[in-house]
């Protein structure tokens, strides 16, 4: 029987022990996984830095791609479907960590005497992240407005508001949509000049979704004009090459680590291993038994549970003499933080 060959991003946590003995495993940085490395691989386990398309996969023996990420915009899903390649991702794996990041950023933006409960939060995109963020924010006393046109179309408009209302009513606007350029609801540059001109409360803008959903030039213009009071940017257009002007203007600036909690990484690895087990028709327990356990996600949190030092992550990027060159290193060597959890 031919030995199974696995090519994996070396920065997927908790993976090595889990797949030890499953076959021959090669671990590489995501941006160094190329056609030569993949040509005789049966399994590819990746993150966002590996572009899984015809250039990478043509002529390969790959039959399964597992990405330890929520998004799949780095994978040509049409190509994979037409070539019999199963694709698995990890939707919702890091939702609590991203919600933690957003509320920590909002807390950092509070002026003396202000409380989270004084603020109206607008959430654009109410999927796994948006739902947890909304629940936690409401538990903290925040007024929350939701915008999600695909959900409003399928479920009814009750409970959802327009982008115009988000712009008018909110003190904080946080984006949690996938990056899309086509279809009925494209998200490329969803946060643009037109949207920002409609803001009335000088909101903080938070982008912990994908860099391209917010127009960098529009954000800088809105900051200069005062239409926006501050920005918290975790996802950047063109990353790892990032706009140093926006970096210098941002209140919070981090290297795409909003979802980098220990629990989120465990969930992501577990989800792609469970999918791999289904693909190989083996018991999932064979692959996931060595993964650490995770605590339940709390229904609500308190302000004291937002003890994540977001300023330290901001300064690590801002203080670098060459932010773009250190971006990947900061991301790949990030000390995974704990999510908010109830103390028992």
What's the layout of helices and strands?
Blueprint (H helix, E strand, L loop, with lengths): L4 E5 L5 H5 L4 E5 L6 H4 L4 E4 L7 H4 L6 E4 L9 H6 L3 E3 L6 H15 L10 E5 L3 H12 L3 E5 L1 H7 L7 H7 L2 E4 L17 H5 L6 E4 L8 H10 L4 E4 L10 H6 L2 E2 L8 H19 L4 H4 L21 H9 L4 H10 L12
Parallel strand pairs: 1-2, 1-3, 3-4, 4-5, 6-7, 6-8, 8-9, 9-10, 10-11
Give a verbal description of the structure.
- This protein is α/β, with parallel strands linked by helices and 344 residues long.
- The chain folds into 2 domains: 5-89, NAD(P)-binding Rossmann-like Domain (Rossmann fold), CATH 3.40.50.720; 95-259 and 306-332, Rossmann fold (3-Layer(aba) Sandwich), CATH 3.40.50.720.
- The protein is built from 15 helices and 11 strands.
- The protein has helices spanning 15-19, 35-38, 54-57, 77-82, 95-109, 128-139, 149-155, 163-169, 193-197, 216-225, 244-249, 262-280, 285-288, 310-318, 323-332, and strands at 5-9, 24-28, 43-46, 64-67, 86-88, 120-124, 143-147, 172-175, 204-207, 230-233, 252-253.
- The strands form 2 sheets. It has a 6-stranded parallel β-sheet with strand order 7-6-8-9-10-11, with helices on both faces.
- Helix 9 links the parallel strand 8 and strand 9.
- Helix 5 (95-109) crosses helix 6.
- The longest helix has 19 residues, at 262-280.
- 44% of the residues are buried.
- The mean pLDDT is 95.
Q: What is the CATH architecture assignment of the largest domain? A: 3-Layer(aba) Sandwich
CATH homologous superfamily title of the largest domain: NAD(P)-binding Rossmann-like Domain
| Cα-to-Cα separation, first versus last residue | 50 Å
Radius of gyration: 20 Å
Q: What oligomeric state do the depicted chains represent?
A: single chain
Helical/strand content category: alpha/beta
Q: How many individual β-strands?
A: 11
- State the low-pLDDT regions, or none: none
The string of secondary-structure elements, in order, is: EHEHEHEHEHEHEHHEHEHEHEHHHH
Q: Kindly state the mean pLDDT as a whole number?
A: 95
* Helical run tally: 15
Helix content: 25-40%
Biggest sheet features: 6 strands, parallel
Q: How many domain units?
A: 2
**Portion in beta strands:** 5-15%
């Amino acid at each position: 029987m031919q030995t199974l060959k696995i090519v994996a991003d070396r920065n997927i946590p908790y993976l090595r022990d889990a797949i030890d003995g499953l076959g021959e495993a090669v671990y590489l940085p995501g941006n160094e996984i190329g056609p030569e490395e993949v040509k005789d691989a049966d399994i590819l386990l990746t993150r966002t830095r590996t572009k899984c398309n015809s250039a990478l996969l043509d002529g390969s023996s790959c039959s399964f791609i597992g990405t330890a990420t929520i998004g799949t915009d780095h994978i040509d899903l049409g190509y994979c479907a037409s070539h019999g390649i199963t694709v698995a991702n990890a939707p919702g794996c890091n939702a609590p960590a991203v919600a933690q990041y957003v509320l920590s950023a909002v807390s950092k933006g509070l002026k003396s005497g202000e409380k989270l409960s004084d603020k109206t939060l607008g959430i654009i995109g109410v999927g796994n992240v948006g739902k947890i963020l909304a629940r936690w924010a409401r538990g903290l006393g925040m007024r929350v407005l939701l915008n999600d046109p695909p959900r409003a179309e399928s479920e009814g408009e009750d409970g959802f508001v327009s982008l115009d209302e988000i712009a008018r009513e909110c003190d904080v606007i946080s984006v949690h949509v996938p990056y899309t350029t086509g279809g009925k609801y494209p998200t490329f540059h969803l946060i643009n000049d037109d949207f920002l001109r409609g803001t009335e409360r000088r909101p903080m803008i938070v982008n912990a979704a994908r860099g391209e959903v917010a127009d960098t030039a529009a954000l800088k213009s809105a900051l200069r004009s005062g239409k926006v009071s501050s920005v918290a940017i975790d996802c950047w257009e063109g990353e790892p090459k990032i706009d140093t002007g926006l970096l210098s203007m941002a209140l919070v600036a981090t290297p795409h680590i909003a979802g980098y909690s220990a629990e989120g990484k465990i969930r992501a690895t577990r989800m792609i291993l469970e999918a791999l087990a289904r693909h190989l028709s083996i018991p999932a327990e064979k692959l996931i038994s060595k993964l650490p356990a995770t605590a339940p996600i709390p229904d609500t949190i308190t302000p004291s549970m937002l003890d994540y030092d977001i300023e330290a992550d901001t300064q690590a990027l801002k203080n670098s003499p060459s932010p773009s060159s250190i971006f990947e290193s900061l991301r790949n060597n990030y000390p995974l933080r704990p999510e908010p959890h109830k103390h028992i």
